[in-house]
Write a structure and sequence with these properties.
Blueprint: E1 10-11, E2 23-24, E3 54-55, E4 61-63, E5 71-73, E6 87-89, E7 97-100, E8 103-106, H1 114-126, H2 130-143, H3 148-160, H4 164-177, H5 182-194, H6 198-205, H7 214-236, H8 239-247, H9 253-262, H10 266-274, E9 289-290, E10 293-294, H11 295-309, H12 313-326, H13 331-355, H14 359-372, H15 377-389, H16 393-406, H17 411-423, H18 427-440, H19 445-461, E11 475-477, H20 481-488, E12 493-499, H21 504-519, E13 524-529, H22 534-539, E14 547-552, E15 555-561, H23 565-574
Parallel strand pairs: 11-13, 12-13
Antiparallel strand pairs: 1-2, 3-4, 4-5, 5-6, 7-8, 9-10, 12-14, 14-15
Helix pairs in contact: 1-2, 2-3, 3-4, 4-5, 5-6, 6-7, 7-8, 8-9, 9-10, 9-11, 10-11, 11-12, 12-13, 13-14, 14-15, 15-16, 15-17, 16-17, 17-18, 18-19
Length: 577
């Protein structure tokens, strides 16, 4: 009687490394139910094939015909469980195997033998050729879709390709085909843990009375401990401690994103949430919970909050509605859904009133929205615009500060704060904000002009001479040394073109300098003809034309001799901030 067959050619260990291990053939710890023959197996005798390869007369081995044909095998057993002699299988669609001298040559098997496809796929997997391995497993599954081992191995290849969501579904399919497949449960547990599905991971780790290996168990317990602490800190509103605990577990990315949001670190929150693994659980999967809501719903819940803070109202509504579909019983989700809708309505009403120039009523509408979401930078900024129109500069300033506290890089709020400071004649603060805006909007002439006027007003408030200050747009000709020194000592940067009327290169680059003076109006552009003003050329040690020098507060910051237009523009832009 034939010995009990085992599951063959299984890729990976199913533990913490998600299957990047050796090829396993059976092995300890496998439940009895898993020892039945694989459906796709073609090299092992099935229950009705116990008489295959029985000794025949004269020491030969007779092979029972397959596919209705007759075949005879000569010689002793060879590799892969077949003989090293010749096999003629006249009626088989699997083709002809011809061997001799200890070698076996297989012809026609690769196209329709799932076991052979699996074997070669495993070899590619071990070499790190995950794409090729995946293709081979796909071909094998197309022939034998009910083979749980093939789906298990396909999951390993997908993990190698970082396609974790698909790997989850393959493990689930392997378990559906063979519910007692322990190693598939273990691999699925590892995958789910990496995706933050902690409760679901635990259920698979401990399925069928088995336990995960020590490393996976410690990882699971550490994450569960972090979740417990995060839950307590989150309930108290202690987001700094929540963030600290969430950072200790890579699986808690969504929790980390929410903590960043509450701490007004929106860029970090958005970046963190973008790294959350995409996982769509099957309809039959037991979903994990975190903070009292289903894990999938929690991700949408955090998405909605971040979208709201960034003013993406439509996206926020979509996200929270999706969360409500996933977990309609969550009180937190239901409350946020209600608030998001109310905030959206308040914002729309406020915008309509603002367009109608009913600024007082618009203020009230935006304020109503803020009662439902006090961390909405857009509503603060919109209300600041209303206060500005109503000439209530202090209130406008306060709302701009609130918006920038929530979203530090909010350009509109920064513009309105700078304008409000200018109205309040707080020139130092206005200049500071406009300088930041110039770095963010280098080609915005309105910002450049506002910065210039704020700089002039600041100098005037300090009793400084501003008679030589002008807003760009033209290149000023400098003739005398005293005029030159006064010009380069003015506030901001000055670009000086040392030229000669007779020089062709100077003539060619002069129009480009005119263009730059228009693009960078906050910079003073000067030109010195070294033939007409040799004293300036001597004082500045200019011997070659065209030479460009950039000055700031009277000091030379950079010198360029015969620069290309690209280099000149890049340097001017650098010193325009």
């Amino acid at each position: 009687m034939a010995s009990k067959p085992t599951r063959t050619n299984v890729v990976g260990s199913g533990t913490g490394n998600y299957g990047h291990g050796s090829i396993m053939r059976g092995g300890p710890g496998v439940s009895p139910n898993r020892l039945r023959p694989d459906i796709a197996s073609s090299n092992r005798p099935g229950p009705s094939d116990t008489s295959l390869n029985r000794p025949g007369p004269g020491g030969t081995y007779l092979s029972r015909p397959r596919h209705g044909g007759a075949s005879t095998r000569y010689g002793g057993p060879g590799p892969y469980g077949v003989s090293s002699g010749s096999v003629v299988n006249s009626g088989s669609s699997r083709g002809l195997m011809v061997g001799g001298g200890g070698e076996t040559v297989r012809r026609g098997i690769l196209g329709n033998d799932p076991e052979e496809l699996k074997r070669i796929g495993n070899e590619n997997y071990k070499k790190g050729n995950f794409v090729e391995a995946l293709n081979l497993y796909d071909k094998a599954i197309a022939i034998s879709p009910g083979n749980a081992t093939l789906h298990f191995n396909r999951a390993a290849a997908l993990i190698g390709l970082k396609r974790l969501g698909e790997a989850v579904r393959e493990c689930e399919e392997a378990i559906r085909l063979d519910p007692s497949y322990v190693r598939a449960h273990q691999r699925l547990g590892s995958l789910l843990l990496s995706l933050g599905q902690v409760e679901n991971a635990r259920s698979h780790f401990f399925s069928l009375g088995h336990k995960p290996d020590q490393a996976e168990l410690q990882k699971l317990q550490a994450v569960e401990k972090n979740i417990s602490k995060c839950t307590a800190f989150r309930r108290l509103g202690d987001w700094t401690s929540t963030l600290k605990e969430a950072e200790a577990s890579p699986q808690l990315l969504a929790c980390r994103a929410e903590a960043y949001l509450k701490l007004h670190q929106l860029a970090d929150a958005e970046l963190c949430l973008s790294k959350v693994g995409k996982y769509e659980p099957s309809a039959s999967a037991c979903q994990s919970k975190i903070f009292g809501m289903l894990s999938e719903a929690y991700i949408f819940f955090v998405h909605a909050q971040i979208d709201m803070a960034l003013g993406r109202f439509e996206s926020a509504v979509t996200a929270i509605e999706r969360a409500a579909q996933v977990d309609p019983r969550s009180a937190e989700v239901s409350l946020l859904l209600k608030n998001v809708r109310l905030v959206g309505r308040a914002r729309t009403r406020g915008n309509d009133l603002f367009k109608s120039e009913r600024y007082t009523e618009a203020c009230a509408a935006y304020g109503e929205g803020l009662t439902y979401n006090s961390s909405n930078s857009v509503l603060y900024c919109n209300r600041a615009a209303c206060w500005y129109k109503l000439e209530q500069w202090e209130k406008s300033l306060d709302d701009c500060n609130q918006a920038l506290l929530i979203q530090p890089n909010y350009t509109k709020a920064l513009l309105r704060r700078a304008a409000s400071n200018a109205k309040l004649e707080r020139w130092s603060e206005a200049v500071r904000d406009y300088e930041v805006l110039r770095r963010e909007l280098p080609y915005d002439n309105e910002v450049a002009e506002s910065l210039f006027h704020a700089q002039v007003a600041l100098k005037e408030s300090r009793g400084e001479d501003v008679s030589n200050m002008k807003f760009g747009g033209e290149v000023e000709l400098v003739l005398g040394l005293e005029q030159f020194r006064s010009a380069i000592s003015s506030s901001g940067a000055s670009v000086v073109h040392f030229k000669a009327e007779s020089n062709l290169q100077c003539k060619q680059i002069s129009p480009f300098l005119d263009t730059l003076s228009t693009k960078f109006p906050s910079i003073s552009f000067l030109k010195v003809d070294v033939e007409e003003s040799p004293a300036i050329a001597t004082a500045e040690n200019v011997r070659i034309v065209p030479t460009f020098k950039i000055y700031k507060n009277g000091s030379c910051m950079k010198e360029m001799i015969r620069p290309s237009p690209e280099v000149l523009k890049s340097s001017v832009r650098h010193y325009s901030f």
